[in-house]
Specification:
The protein has about 600 residues and is α+β, with helices and mostly antiparallel strands. The chain has 11 helices and 30 strands. Strand 6 and strand 7 form a beta hairpin. The longest helix has 20 residues. The N and C termini lie far apart (about 90 Å).
Amino acid sequence: MNKIITKLLFTLYLIISSNFLTAEAGVPLISSPNSGSIFSSSSVPFILNNNGQVVTNWNLRVGSNFGADNLANRSAAGSSSSITVHHLPTDSTTIFVRLQYKENGIWKIANDYTYTASPSLTLPTITSPVSGSTLTSSSEIFTLDNNGLTITNWNIRLGISLGSYDLANRFAAGSSTQISVTDLPTDSSPIFVRLQYKENGVWKVANDFIYTASMPLLSPSITYPSSGSMLTSSTVNFLLDNNGRPLTNWYLSVGSSLGANDIANRFAANTSTSITINNLPTDGRETFVRLQYKEYGIWKTAEDYTYTAATSLTNYGELGPYQPLRYPENGLTDDNYVIYYPQNAITADMPVIVFLEGGGNTPTIDDYQGTMMFLASQGYYVIGAESGGSYDSDYARSIVQSAIDLSISAHGLTLSKLAVMGHSQGGGQAFYVMRYFQDPANGGLGSIASLVLSIDGWFSFTMNQEDLATLHGNIAFIQMNDLIGTGTDPRIHLSIWNLSSNTENKFLTLPHNDHSYIKGDLNTLLNGRTDILYQLGALTSDAFNNENNGYASIPITQKATFNAVFNALMPENQYSADCEGVAYNARQNQLRHFNIDYCAMTE
């Protein structure tokens, strides 16, 4: 009798064990890795099979105990075919995995699986790109690590499904540390990579990796000059960007009609980042440029660009045609201003420039006589204000008001074309002065053309955020010492840039680490500082003539973006004129009355 009972119990045990170990037919499951297997790394892709069920969501719980999720809890849409889990232990411990799925709005347990973590001696692996990442192009270099094993050969298989090699199958010697693969898809699809290696004459699977294909690559392009712009010279350096494509050659054709090359054609190696074209026409004609490139042995057209050829070239840094005269001939008026004007060229609608001196008692307006004479020679009416003795911008405004009142009464000037510029403290005060005069209650000046130009400028003292937001027209910053700036903290420029939301802003730099580079008599400027004169001439010409030719002609090396200046900022304590205004008591004396935080650079 005991033998019969024992036999029945054993049969019942086999039935229960069989049901426990065998997944129920039709239930979703993990098809790889097999339950009971040993992981080969700390990152494991779990391949899912819905087994014919309509699964709307997956959930994978990974833990150190049955049903736990202390190691990972990953969810995915039902359309997913895999879930990759990273940072798993590599200590040969038991790892429990529970697969759950959502069907008809109800979460269900599919099955539980048991695995062994990879041993501390890791298998060969792909260290870059990281498994689970998105590839950057159709060509990828896979970096290999043998992890101390003696490998005689590598094999890397790439496919659209696990273990397949319909995309690529590459072999390399065991001494190799990289394998390059080309012609990969660029459609954001999943790419499965299996790494295999040969050790002691036996081929072994190291691991499977899953990546996402890159997005479609952009065509190569000309980044400068921008299409539609006017060329500034008979020689143009066209800057190129391959946009990540594996091209082998460039070709640039320039013609009088679309696709023609009657003006020029140039080839260049794929390593080139620019192509220079000489002897371009300077007659203002429409000029067509076609960019082509060679990729995988095939020539392709990237894009067509249209430009306007340069006209009779203007050197904005040369002395103008007018003889500059001064009023008064010596000294200042009683109201602390001086006027330079073009001889025999005063008209009611002529452009007017206000120039504000730097701060403190040391500089005087005559320190800038060369700049003012240069501008007057261009045909502009220039008012220079001895305004640096006070942080209160109303002081500068009152001096300018007196000069404008005299100019209107003496010459009937309309001041519809107005530029206000200044150096250092005067560069900051220029914003207040322009805002004041643009107010209809104060004349609404500069209605046709307005420009505020800050040359190594400081704070716009007597202003709140809303005051800067009311400015309209053009704003330009000229900063010395390239992107880094001199002792004047560039945060001040960037804060004003942010808050002047109704203006068109430009940022220019010059390489001279000299805050006072703008000062000097006319001969000094013309015999060594024509780069600053060129920028002044180009910006004022554009503002008064409603064009962009001057700015377009300024070398690209002297143009900067907000982000470029921001990224070059040094710690605040590296600037003598700090963005808080503490070093010169500006915070205590004036800035504390207003709501602009020049260190925050926020709108």
